[in-house]
Amino acid sequence: MSGFLLHILIAVHTLIAAISTGALFYLLYAALKGHSPAKDPILLFALVWPLANLVILAANGWTCPMQNWAQDLTGQHAGWVRDIYWIPERWLRIVPWTYSLGYLAGVLLVFARLAWSRARAGDVRQRD
User: Fold this and answer.
1) 60 by DSSP, 3-state: which?
2) Domain map of the chain by residue range?
3) Nearest-CA neighbor of 103 among 22, 10, 13, 18?
4) Are 82 and 10 in contact (CB under 8 A)?
5) pLDDT, tens digit, for every residue of 84-125?
6) Which of 9-31 are b and which e, b meaning 16 or more Cβ less than 10 Å from the residue's Cβ?
7) Residue 20 near residue 48, CB atoms below 8 Å
8) What does pTM read for this prediction?
9) 3-state secondary structure of 62
10) Which of 32, 54, 117, 122 is the most core-located residue (most Cβ within 10 A)?
């Protein structure tokens, strides 16, 4: 039974990782296109989802709770237990830091682009 539950956990965690990766890429896309979170619900989701993940990671000592559950299901509490299908273990060790920095960069780019767009709009209005 625990093997079945482990595969469900891995599938769910793989889906979460795919959504998280998509959210980070969408932040960069939205920043380049000048989207506003007020007008783009996908961008709003892309801003909130990674933040929620980071809060969960930080609250759990920068360890993914899914890893803890995978260890509990396998009884292996030393080392790493595969809890996601498509990312090698050596990459997973740097995910919290690269994810955090990627999210921060995406958020800064989105809001810098918004500020720049508003400043340009203000300049155009002043000329008229």
Assistant:
1) coil
2) 2-127
3) 22
4) yes
5) 887 777 787 787 778 888 889 989 999 898 888 888 777 555
6) bbeebbeebeebeebbebbebbb
7) no
8) 0.78
9) coil
10) 54
